[in-house]
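User: Please fill in residues for this 122-position structure.
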């Protein structure tokens, strides 16, 4: 059973920064594409960012491009999402996901973490 555990969420003021971590266990981390999604109350889970197995290719949603950075450390079996210039619209539960393919939709990822709350105050 592959498990993902997110951490690093919290309360931050608009314009601030936050760094999320995703620890992966139960499988070879380097064989999985890793992505971050988020879900605000009453809304569908939406794509935020993804990174390839080697870490050489990344893609971001337009809403976070230029502000967020996704990274991975295969030696530590951990992926990261560094969030800068945070806005109140970024408030959501953030989920880490892993899969064997490179996709932008929730159905393309096989494993999910429990989520971590990020709240951005104005």
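Assistant: Residues filled in for all 122 positions:
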């Amino acid at each position: 059973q592959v498990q993902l555990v997110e951490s690093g969420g919290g309360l931050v003021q608009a314009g601030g920064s936050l760094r999320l971590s995703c620890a992966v266990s139960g499988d070879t981390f380097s064989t999985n594409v890793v992505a971050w999604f988020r879900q605000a109350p009453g809304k569908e889970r939406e794509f935020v960012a993804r990174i390839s197995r080697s870490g050489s290719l990344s893609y971001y949603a337009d809403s976070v491009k230029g502000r967020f950075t996704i990274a991975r450390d295969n030696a530590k079996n951990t992926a990261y999402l560094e969030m800068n210039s945070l806005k109140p619209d970024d408030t959501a539960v953030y989920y880490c996901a892993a899969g064997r393919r490179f996709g932008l939709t929730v159905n393309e990822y096989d494993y999910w973490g429990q989520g971590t709350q990020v709240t951005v105050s104005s």
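For context: The chain has no helices and eleven strands.
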